[in-house]
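Comment on both lines for my students:
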Amino acid sequence: MLLLFDDDGKLFLVIKDFTSILEMRAEARQEILSQIREASDGYISKSFGTGKRVEWTGKIAVLAGVTPVIDRHHWLHQILGERFLYYRIGSEDPKTMAEKAKRLAGKEKAMRQELQEIVTQFLDQFEEPKIDGIRIAEEMNQKLIHLACFVAQARTGVARDRYDKTIEFIPEAEGPARLIKQLWVLGCGIAIAQGKSDLDEEVFSILKKIGRDSLPKHRDLIFKAMVEKRIFGDEWVNSKGIGRLIDIPTDTAKRYCEELMMVHLLDRKIQGEGDDSEDTHWGRTNPYLWRLSEDCLDLMRGGDLYALQDTNDDPEDVTNYDETFDFR
């Protein structure tokens, strides 16, 4: 862990492995996370049994590395108040990565020193950068607002009972106020680093990745698959079909879809409901069917997400989901 201070009460906290905090006992983990959340709001105080009281006022930025295990804790972070944006670093070619790591074996000390020098030189070129000088067109501003609203709603946590996994209460979607400020400031910083005076499409494409990466991974996969397969409008898919789309068990897919339904991003109905067939849904013999909700589609289109505008509206090109996902 590294702490960097400046004279204006600003604190930059670097955590090499945030996973070690997530894997602590619940009480210790929540105490640390609650302190980070309070500090990120600009003020924190703590009293000790000795009578000593510590107060801090200022601004804090946290940069942390973490493994995908963070997705297992996402609902708890959301319920208690999310403060983080995520950037997921994927591995498209693990063999090349392994080969490069082997070549660098034994050179770690020199490599770290070189990286420190490069980062220092990069930061030294900026003299008091001001985000006030960054412009944004109205069309791009609307995209940014829709992106923040979508991410805030799509990452809202849904609490389940730890034993029977039933949903404990109706969640209230996270407000977008904090998120829009984070995305705007980050976008301005990226524009400044690129020598630009406008938040343009290139910068916004990075913000879109950060927004999608800030969702639980399975939710992003569900959205992407449902847009690609055009499961909206008159098209529905059952839980088994969702499971096949993203390669997860049917029961798990059903739980994921239930959570997205609770935050109003998926619609649900029971197969056979409303037609002339025998209504057996009270016995739970008919599967649930799912589709993207209109609210979800509006936010995706407004934020230019998941290439929704590129979907083909030709009705003859619609996949036959009755055959593909075996609704029988």
About this structure: The beta strands are 2-5, 10-15, 43-47, 53-57, 59-64, 237-238, 266-270, 288-292. The first strand starts at residue 2 and ends at 5. The chain has three domains: 1-66, 127-214, 216-324.
